[in-house]
Amino acid sequence: MSTGELLSIEPQELQFPFELRKQISCSLQLSNKTDNYVAFKVKTTNPKKYCVRPNTGVVMPRSTCDVIVTMQAQREAPPDMQCKDKFLLQSAVASPGATTKDITSEMFNKEAGNRVEESKLRVAYVPPPQPPSPVREGSEEGSSPRASVSDNGNLNASEFTAVSRSYVEPQDNSSEARALISKLNEEKKSAIQQNNKLQQELELLKREINRTRGGGVAFIYVILVGLLGLVLGYLMKKT
User: How far apart are alpha carbons 34 and 36 in whole angstroms?
Assistant: First the structure.
């Protein structure tokens, strides 16, 4: 903040979030802490590039006034995002009850013996604000702990990384477990189908044995098939 005897100016540096082909505005607040009416006038080194509203005015005693500075849309970015433009705010004591219509250029003429305060303001380009990244909302129970916040209100990089890992890894393990369970269910279903098929074949063989004679070899085959079915059933129960 620039604190003069007539006006206090906030901020001292005009910061524009620079974006190509887009008008950008920032504001100045002028505070009059005196018991006088104070007239002001805003000048710039590049009047074609900026629009100031109001560029002249009167701040009443013990009051404030906001000035909006708008930068016209730019077609190309300056080298290294550096700006050499400057603003000059002049202020002078006005007569009681003065309005903007009463302001004349002579009021800000030092050579005429008038008391004029001058404040120089710099211009800076800053990166445009980034939209917040989408954060998945967790349930109140079982949600991951929040990262601790440092004294200046910023998250430490190491703490943020740790929180991210603790939030992601359980999801990966859960997906692997679901895939394994699904695979086991598939194998179990396949084993059941094979067992049913063997039982059907066993029934068919029994019927053939009853229809034919001398089924010694066939009987042994039936026993082997039955044993195989029992083994498969045991393995299926074990899984």
Answer: 5
Residues of the chain with pLDDT under 50: 139-171
Does residue 231 come out as left (phi exceeding 0), alpha (psi in the -120 to 50 range) or beta? alpha
Q: For residue 61, what are the contacts with CB-CB under 8 A and spacing of at least 6?
A: 32, 34, 35, 36, 37
**Distance, CA of 147 to CA of 83 (rounded, Å):** 38
Spell out the residues 6+ positions from residue 171 whose beta carbon is closer than 8 angstroms to its own.
none
Q: Nearest Cα to 170, choosing from 148, 145, 135?
A: 145
Helix axes 216-238, 157-211, angle to 10 degrees: 160
CB 58 within 8 A of CB 17: no
Contact 78/19 with Cβ under 8 angstroms? Answer: no
Partners of residue 63 on adjacent β-strands: 32
91 forms beta bridges with 40, 117
